[in-house]
Specification:
Elements: H1 35-44, E1 64-75, H2 76-81, E2 87-88, H3 92-99, E3 101-104, E4 111-114, E5 120-132, E6 138-142, E7 149-150, E8 156-157, E9 159-161, E10 165-167, E11 171-174, H4 179-187, E12 201-204, E13 209-213, H5 217-224, E14 234-236, E15 241-245, H6 246-263, E16 274-278, H7 284-309, H8 313-336, E17 338-351
Antiparallel strand pairs: 1-17, 2-16, 3-4, 5-10, 5-11, 5-17, 6-9, 6-16, 7-8, 12-13, 13-15, 14-15
Helix pairs in contact: 5-6, 7-8
Length: 354
Amino acid sequence: MSVRSEKVDAPTATMASLDLSAQSTATALDHSDHVTATITAAQQADSALAESNTLSVSNPDHPITRNISVTIKATLGDLCLRKNKASWAPTATALKNILQKKKFTSLGGSAEGTGDLRSIVLHDMTATHISSNFPFPVGANLSAVDANTYSITGEAFGFIAPSNSSTNVSTRLQADDTSLAYEFARKFPGYTAENLTEKGVHEVPARRFCLIASDHPLVSAIQENSSKLQLGDVSMMPEGLVKIGTELYQTVMPIVTQQVASQIRVRDLSTAKVTISPSESTSWSEARNELVTQAKEALRSELETSLAASTGEGEIANMRNEFAKREALIESNLDNTIHTFHTTLAVTYNFLSK
């Protein structure tokens, strides 16, 4: 199997061998060398039982593009009391409608969505518009975007929108190197780190062996590391599957899964969302209290000036009552004013598997 961690440039990228260390595979027991040729033949065979044989991966030069409008509207009162009010989180059905490719299933125009939202190869995500009328800076965290923008609190965000701001200047939020992902998809179509233990794997616990599809990355890893493994517990089945002993499977599969997960970068957007929070405060309640304190300080300064010019006790009492009402009104206005955060995202991506 071919995986490597260093950055490579497509289309000349080639995959280095996946290294299964002798220490990790010492428990593979008494296996013989005669199966290497059998595995090679299995990989070249057409197997009707190999689940990924009919899968075709999209062209890396023609990725999918989506423009996604994100709007979050809420009052400070709501944001302090209800955490979900600070998030834009479409339902699973809505996300499929937004991100999946449409595949026509009949001449009448019926279509269904294709593409595994858990295995998205992200080319680029750019914010083409950002606006916020919150009275303080707001940080946004987005699925598939690394949080690399830091505020005074030390918190990291995908980006920060200044208070009462609006811009149409495009800001690139994320750009991934996709070369390894496409090369992996070409060699092992349909496989991801998430489905390696399910796709093309048929365990038979009672007999202590597993049947593995001949195009599975695990089979390639065993073949390429045959000098480090003793392969007596592997054999070719008539259906084109490879029979592997349970102990060998349990030893090698975690290593393969870990290397695929760490080196083949895909994004899980099956629960994609955008969440905002005050970038210069630790919570919505703290940000709200700071606004209330600032507004009341100005009001109290005005009250002290008015009291200094008053003469009678009755006038002073009336003045204090009036200012108390104004303080309550300030809090009510701050708590009930609707604020809006909006961004438009241009997303370019593909699917590693259907």
